[in-house]
Model the fold of this input.
Amino acid sequence: MSEQTYDLVVIGGGPGGYVAAIRAAQLGMKTACVESRGRLGGTCLNVGCIPSKALLHSSERFAEARDHLAEQGIKIGKLDLDLGTMMGRKDKVVDDLTKGIEFLFKKNKVDYVKGFGSIPAVGEVAVKAENGASQTLKSRNVLIATGSESTPLPNVEIDEKRIVSSTGALALGKVPKTMVVIGAGVIGLELGSVWSRLGAEVTVIEFLDRILPAMDGEIAKQTQRVLQKQGLTFKLGHKVTSAKAGRTGVALQVEPAKGGAAETLKAEVVLVSIGRRPYTEGLGLDALGVKVDNRGFIQVDDRFQTSLPGIYAIGDCVPGPMLAHKAEEDGVVCVEMLDGQAGHVDYNLCPSVVYTWPEVAGVGRTEEQLKEDGVDYRVGKFPFTANSRGRANAETDGLVKILADRRSDKVLGVHILGPLAGDLLQETVVAMEFGASAEDIARSYHSHPSMSEAVKEAALAVHGRPIHI
Done:
C-alpha cells in the first residue's frame, strides 16, 4: 500500500487511544488509530470493564431474586439460571459498544487501521495486518496507548480453561462448584462476586493481610465483612507457590506469606488476578531508545512526551492509576497540548471504584496516608443504616467517610462503601477539583430522600454535627 501521512497516529484503540483519536480529529488533526485486536475498545470494552459490569449486573439481579425479593413481598416460583443467555447478553453489550466506537470514528473522520503497530523510526508507524499485509503510516506525532495485560504468577500457567485470567473468567461455560481467586484486588473481588452469586464456592487468597490494598483501610475491612456475609471466604497473608491443572480441577500449593507449613487446596477453576503490567511488547521501544522504568512503564514528561520528541504515551503503559478513565483524561490532555492548549491531570483526584455490591469507591488520600504524612485531619462518617433511602431500599450496608484538613477544612479524601458508591463519589470528585471544604458539601442541597444525603451527613460529621445519628 502507498504511504499515508498524518498529524497523529495512535497505536491502541482502547479507552485512552480511541478517545485521544476522536479528540484529535475534533481539533482538526488528520488522525489514524491502529488496533491489532480487530475490535475497538481495548481490554476495557472487550475483556474487562464492560463485560464484567454486565455480568455483575446480571448476577446481582439473580442473587436479589433468589435471596431478597421474598422479604419485600415478591414471591416467585423455582428460580433457574440460564448462563448461556446471561453470557449472550454480555457479548451483545460488548458488540454494540465496539460498533459504536467504529461509528464515532467515521463520524469524526478518524482512519481505523487494523493490524499490529510498531515504531521503526520517529515519525513512522509500521502496521502488519493479520493476513500478513503491511503498510507504513507517516506521522508528525505518534501516541502509544497500548494498555496493559494481566501480570503472570510464577509456577502458575494460565490456560484460560482451568487456570484463567480475567479474560477466561468472563467466558466460563458453566458455573464451577469451587473457585479459588488469587488476589484480593478489584478484579478478583468483582469476578469472585459474580461466580459466588451464581453458585460457586469462592475462596480468595491474598498475599497481604488485607483486601483492596489501595483503598482506605477501614472501608476495606468493612467490605471484607460484607463480602463474607455474601459467601466469599478469605485466606489473607498467604501466597500460592504453584498450581497444577488436571482433568477435573486444579491443585494449588499455598503457604503463609511470612513463612510456615504449606497446604494443598483444590478448586475446579482458579482465577489469577494479581494485577496488571504495561503492554509494550513489539513496539520497538528498545531499538528506538524510548526510556522505560524497571517495571516496564514508559517514562513521559508533563506533556506525555517520551524521551524521544514526537513520540507520546498515555494510559496504562505510563505511570499513574491503571484505570480506563485515567487513560481517557491522559489522551484528551495530551492531544489538546499538541494543539497548543493548556492541559493538566491530577492523579491524586482520580477516583477508583470496585463494582461489587455494595460498591466501594474512593478519591484522594486514605486515612493511612494522612497519618504517614503527619497531616492533621478530621474524620466525618455516616452509615447507610441511618439513611432514609437506604432503609426504604433495604440497602443499609456501608458508610461514607470524609477526611478534611483540620485547619482549612479542605476535603482531602472521600471513601464510600455502599449502594452506587461510584456515582455518589462523583460530587466529591468535583468538589475536590475546586478545592472545596467539608462545610461546602455540608451546606449544599441534597435531595430527600436520597442516598446522597449520606454524603452531606458525613460532611456535617467532620465538625461533629450530623443530624440523623
The first strand starts at residue 4 and ends at 11. The domain at 4-150+277-346 is CATH 3.50.50.60 (FAD/NAD(P)-binding domain).
